[in-house]
Design the sequence.
């Protein structure tokens, strides 16, 4: 054995040893035993421990997480799936890190808004304490800054959609980006800005960063009302002349803001410059009612109500895995054995059998058979 090949041989031997130990630990993985001693001692599972808890605004909680050694980092704009056990049942949700992707401390910062009907978000807001251990996934998603970075960047967010664009802002600043950055954030009132202190500090310390806050209920912000062409002209007039400059816009927020920004960009012919990330579940138009939905693995069948397959499965008493409920994370992917489905986000229909589909954005059209 050469000196150069020694590390590879040692690593291979280590993996073989892990495989042997796991075989002896069957039917459970070795991590199931290690977590009884130390939840953060894992061989394969990726987990994170809450190191700090903060409440930036009344209805949101900011968690600082220390991941286990398997964590590969993230790019600004991506999301992670967070799993937590509530009353003996594991639930998974998607959240976007809000910190800089260039930070070297290896920590993950998540800000979670406690949604009125959000089981996981309400639990984290109410119960999260330092020491809590959650499961996490590697970062994923295509809502990303390009390389090289654009000369001019417009960041638009609303409400809790601030987190991925906050990460983009922090990352650009940490990288020493010298181009113009405009950060526009829409909230109901000034008390709803989760990162107000950090945003004002960044804008004060970086002359190339312009902060625009819009309070849609109370007024008194830098602009009045909701996003329109006037708002765009006020904050980023250069976006209407994409041929003259290198510019990109990034948007994440509630459906109304997303729709309004898309319409303006489409009307002026620069929709190709707009990059978006949804953070609210897709709203399904009433689908075609009739026919039967069959869940083959569970031997359960129900009349088609027109709702998404995820909703219909849950209504039938099944508990398929899911994460974002908006067609981003692919946690709820299952095989459609037969029938036609409609994508509620795009309106496209699909008749192909034995095909993997996303339950949360797929509605049955007539009879459908799904492998759940």
Sequence:
């Amino acid at each position: 054995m050469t000196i150069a090949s020694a590390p590879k041989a040692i690593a291979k031997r280590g993996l073989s040893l892990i495989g042997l130990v796991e075989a002896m630990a069957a039917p459970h993985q070795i991590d199931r035993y290690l977590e009884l001693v130390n939840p953060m001692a894992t061989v394969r599972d990726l987990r994170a421990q809450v190191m700090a808890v903060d409440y930036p605004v009344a209805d949101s909680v900011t968690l600082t997480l220390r991941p286990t050694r398997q964590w590969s980092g993230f790019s600004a704009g991506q999301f992670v799936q967070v799993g937590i056990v509530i009353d003996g049942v594991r639930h998974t949700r998607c959240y976007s890190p809000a910190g800089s992707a260039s930070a070297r401390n290896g920590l993950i910062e998540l800000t979670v808004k406690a949604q009125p009907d959000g089981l996981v978000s309400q639990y984290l807001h109410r119960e999260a304490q330092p020491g809590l251990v959650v499961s996490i996934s590697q970062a994923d998603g295509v809502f990303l800054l390009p390389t090289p970075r654009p000369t001019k960047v417009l960041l638009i967010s609303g409400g809790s959609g601030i987190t991925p664009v906050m990460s983009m802002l922090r990352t650009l600043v940490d990288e020493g980006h010298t181009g113009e950055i405009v950060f526009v954030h829409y909230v109901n009132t000034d008390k709803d800005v989760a990162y107000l202190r950090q945003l004002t500090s960044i804008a004060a310390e970086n002359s190339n960063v312009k902060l625009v806050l819009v309070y849609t209920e109370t007024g008194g912000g830098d602009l009045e009302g909701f996003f329109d062409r006037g708002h765009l002209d006020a904050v980023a007039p250069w976006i209407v002349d994409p041929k003259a400059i290198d510019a990109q816009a990034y948007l994440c927020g509630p459906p109304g803001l997303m729709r309004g920004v898309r319409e303006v960009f489409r009307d002026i012919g620069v929709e190709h410059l707009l990059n978006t990330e949804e953070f609210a579940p897709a709203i399904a138009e009433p689908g075609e009612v009739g026919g039967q939905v069959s869940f083959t693995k569970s031997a359960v069948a129900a009349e088609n109500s027109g709702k998404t397959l995820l909703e219909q499965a849950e209504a039938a008493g099944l508990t398929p895995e899911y994460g974002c409920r908006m067609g981003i994370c692919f946690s709820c992917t299952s095989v459609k054995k037969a029938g036609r489905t409609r994508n509620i986000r795009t309106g496209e229909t699909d008749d192909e059998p034995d095909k993997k589909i996303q339950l949360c954005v797929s509605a049955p059209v007539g009879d459908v058979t799904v492998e759940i």
Remarks:
- The chain has eight helices and 17 strands.
- The longest strand covers residues 333-343.
